[in-house]
Design a protein that fits this description.
Elements lengths: L2 H20 L8 E4 L7 E2 L3 E8 L2 E2 L12 E8 L17 E3 L6 E4 L4 E10 L15 E5 L1
Parallel strand pairs: 2-9, 4-5
Antiparallel strand pairs: 1-3, 3-7, 5-6, 5-8, 8-9
Copper (II) ion binds next to strand 5.
Length: about 140
């Protein structure tokens, strides 16, 4: 190994460590999902959703403690075809619902018909982790 290679390796390690420290990277295997709700399910109003999380924590939005690197809050993407830009705060509107208080369930009344549901975790500034904690996108039919 020549000197240039060694310097390049040191720089690669340093960059990786710095990225991990600031990117709120969830550990491998961390995930979010809808508890007890399968893709293709037929549901009735009011629709009760339970948000599962594993390998990462829940903390209210705006939390500035050390915990923010190991926890976030849920966002429900309702009938969203294209996921939001993962490098920016998640939008807040009728299709991007924030659970700022660290809620892990929700009760919704949805128009009859097909709807897609997906969970996306966000940090204290509502930005997705890197890589994002994004659930499988499921489709439910409200009768
Ligand atoms: Cu948020």
């Amino acid at each position: 190994m020549n000197k240039a290679t060694i310097i390049a390796l040191i720089m690669a390690f340093t960059t990786t460590a710095a990225t991990q420290a600031f990117a709120h990277s969830p550990p491998k295997g961390a995930r979010v999902w809808f508890i007890g709700l399968e893709d293709g399910a037929v549901v009735h109003n009011p629709v009760k959703l339970k948000f599962g999380i594993e390998g990462f924590g829940i903390t209210p939005a705006g939390t500035r403690s050390k915990k923010r690197h190991t926890a976030g809050h849920h966002h429900l993407l309702l009938d969203v075809d294209t996921p939001p830009n993962l490098d920016e705060p998640i939008p807040s509107d009728a299709h991007h619902i924030h659970f700022d208080q660290g809620e892990t369930e929700a009760v919704l009344t949805l128009p009859p018909g097909k709807h897609t549901l997906q969970l996306l975790l966000g940090d204290e500034d509502h930005e997705p982790q890197d890589p994002p904690l994004l659930s499988e996108k499921i489709t439910v039919t409200v009768e």
